[in-house]
Each structure stands twice: as C-alpha cells, then as structure tokens.
Amino acid sequence: AFDTPEELAAKRKEIPNFQYDASTRMQMRNSLTLSKEETQALLDSHSQYVVRIKVEPGIDITVDDLIRGEVTINSSVLDDKVIYKSADELPTYHLANVVDDHLMQITHVIRGEEWLPSAPLHVWLYKSLGWEDSMPQFAHLPLLLKPEGSGKLSKRDGDRLGFPVFPLQWEDPETGEIFSGYRESGYLPEAVINFLALLGWNPGTEQEIFSLEELIDAFSFERCSKSGARFDYEKARWFNHKYILATPDEQLVDMFMPILEEKNVVASRDYVTKVVALVKDRVNFVNELWDQSSYFFVAPTDYDAKTVRKRWKAETPDQMRELIDILEKMDDFSAENQEKIIMKWIRDNEYHLGNVMNAFRLALVGEGKGPHIFGITVLLGKEETIARLKKAIETIPAPNV
C-alpha cells in the first residue's frame, strides 16, 4: 500500500470511523487498485510503502484461550493491519511475533488480556502462513489493577504509593526519571514470585506460601481469574516478611554485612548472626535490619524524649544504680538467670515493673523498642550493659516528671 499519511488523514476525515479493510481498500492506493506496472514503478522509485495483511470479511475467527475458553469474532471487524514498513525496513510486532514464535516452536503464548483483541489477527496470520497446525495455545492473563481506584497498575502508582512495579530499578531513557525496583527495595526473589503467582490465580486451598516447586505443581490455567487482580502492596510486604523469617540466618547475614560496612561497623560474623536471629522477626526487608539493630553495634547517644517523659521518673536513677549493683554481682549472665534475679528484685521492692523495665530498655537501646530485653543484654554482655546504664544516669536529667 502506497497511501501517504496525508491521503490516510483525508480518508479518515471523509469517512467516519474509517478503517482500512474490505470496505475501503479499493478506494486506496495499493497493489489491488494499481496495475502491476504502476506498482513496480513505485517500488523502483523507492516510494515509501507498507505491507498490509488482507483480511477477508464474513469469516468467524476463533481463539481457543486456556483461561477464557473459545472467543469468536467475525473477520469483518478486523482491519488490514500493517505488517511491514519500508521506511523502517522492519516488520511490525504482529508479524514479527508470529514468525518468531513459530520458528522457536513456542507451544504457549501467555500474555496480558490487553492483547486479546489482537489474538484473532494473530490466528489469521498463522492460518495465512500455513502454520495453523503448529499454532501455539493462547492464555490471556487478567490485568493487574491499581491498589485503589480504577484502571490498570502503572509505574507511577508505585512511586506515588511507595512500592516498586519493576523487577530492577529503571531509568526512563526519555525523561531520566528513576523508578524503584523490587531488588533495590529489598524484596527477596522467592517472595516476589510467590506474591505475583497469587495475583489472578488461586490454588483452591488456604495455602499462601509456596516454594517454586510447589507453584509449578499446583498451577493450572483453569484456576486463573478472568477479572483483573487488585495489586495489594501491603500483601507483598507480608510475603517478604514471611520469606525473611524462613531464610537461614547465614544468608541474611550475607545480605546485611554490606550494610554494616557502609555504616563503618566492624563486628564478627558470629556476633552479627546472633543479632540477625534476634531481630529478623521485626523486619519486612533486609535493609530494615539496621534500624532494628543499630544499638547492638553503636551505643545510643541520645534518648527518645517521649519514653523519657513517660518512664524516667524521679526515682529511676537510684533504681538503675541498684540494678547496676545487681548485674555486677551476677556470675551467671544468662537471660534466664538475669530475668529471675531482676524480677525478684522488682517484686521485693514493690517497684513499678513497667517503669523499671522500660527505663532499663531506654538506657540500652535509646528508645522503647526492641526484642526481649534479656536477649539484648546477653548479646551486649555484662560490661556494655552496665556501661550503658551508667551513661543513661549521667545523661538523662532526673527528676524528669
């Protein structure tokens, strides 16, 4: 077809809802309306042209979709799609994709439902090329929808709401805008696969955590949804947390050590492993390990004002001095022995349990967070625990009520 852009624009203006098909192709400049000599002359003069697939009207085309069943449309609704452009010296996607899949002996074409309207054209191409017997099976998956509102998930939804939509960090080559990736955001590959597998598919059971082998065994197109799946990024975080918990401590340490190096922290691998084991149930991502464990490597230099106001009472400095004396006399610094002796001391003196233990935690951590306090003290050791108590007594004003 030798129609210029201007000729096509004029025809669109002339004919409402113009489509290049059986009803209009004879009004255009193409090899059907031009003589062989005219056509050859245009080719010899290097005139720009396109090749269109000629679609005959009135023929039912059936796409046998593994998810949606048989989808039939009449060929009259299809246009004579461009399959090659001389200006680019390249085939268009429709032809290239069909030829590529045929030559690679692809058995299944699995893609998003936005490609379903193109499937009849692809079936027509397979038949036109004589490849009907080797045509792959089609499966058009439901779209991923925005977490809120309507419409398809977009890359900007992710950055707007704080979650990635790309496997790896990606820079838009045109705008230079950078979009976050799952890997850079701290998602484990196994968690991402598990999460995505359950978007638009369900196993028919209550099971949510699947190994890759389990997913392969359980998956079937019959259990894929026909409707779109809403992207739940909080569920993605939940999956990552579950996989963090299931990951061996040694592997998490491998991922955590570079973070410690960036923080100029020097610590033995054995110590880091113990820290990771203690705090990993408190994180969703590996990069959160530092936020949850920094006090194991660096003593607090200031103290959370809210916790100080609530828990550091007028009597607290004297109570902490008593606690120091108790700790100094301990030969067995195990968590069990510490808890037994300290709890007895609190009960015998009728001290306020919450105030004492939270003040103790404040001195060690700098705020009112963290795992079991005696797990913290065991890892810090007696000397460091006592040193932090002394520093808190010196630093935090008392009374502070």
Describe the structure.
It is a single chain. This protein is mainly alpha-helical and 401 residues long. The chain has 4 domains: 5-141, Rossmann fold; 155-243, Glutamyl-trna Synthetase, Domain 2 (Glutamyl-tRNA Synthetase, domain 2, Orthogonal Bundle), CATH 1.10.1160; 247-296, Helicase, Ruva Protein, domain 3; 305-395, Arc Repressor Mutant, subunit A, CATH 1.10.10. Helices cover 44% and strands 10% of the residues. The protein contains 16 helices and 11 strands.
Distinctive features:
401 residues; Rossmann fold; Helicase, Ruva Protein, domain 3; three-stranded antiparallel sheet; two-stranded antiparallel ribbon; 16 helices; elongated
What is the structure about, briefly put?
This protein is mainly alpha-helical and 401 residues long. The chain has helices at 5-14, 36-44, 93-103, 119-128, 155-161, 189-197, 212-218, 233-246, 249-262, 269-279, 289-293, 305-311, 316-328, 335-349, 353-365, 373-395; strands spanning 50-52, 60-65, 69-74, 82-85, 90-91, 108-112, 137-141, 144-145, 170-171, 178-179, 229-230. The mean pLDDT is 95.
CATH domain class of the largest domain: Alpha Beta
Q: Which architecture of the largest domain does the CATH hierarchy give at level 2?
A: 3-Layer(aba) Sandwich
Poorly predicted regions = none
Through-space gap between termini: 87 Å
Overall shape: it is elongated
State the helix count: 16
Radius of gyration: 34 Å
Q: So, the CATH homologous superfamily of the largest domain?
A: HUPs
**Count of folded domains:** 4
Percent range of helical residues = 40-55%
What share of residues are in beta strands?
Answer: 5-15%
- Widest beta sheet: strand line-up: 1-4-5
Q: How does the major sheet shape up?
A: 3 strands, antiparallel
* CATH third-tier fold name of the largest domain: Rossmann fold
Mean pLDDT: 95
Total number of beta strands? 11
Helix/strand/pairing category? mainly alpha
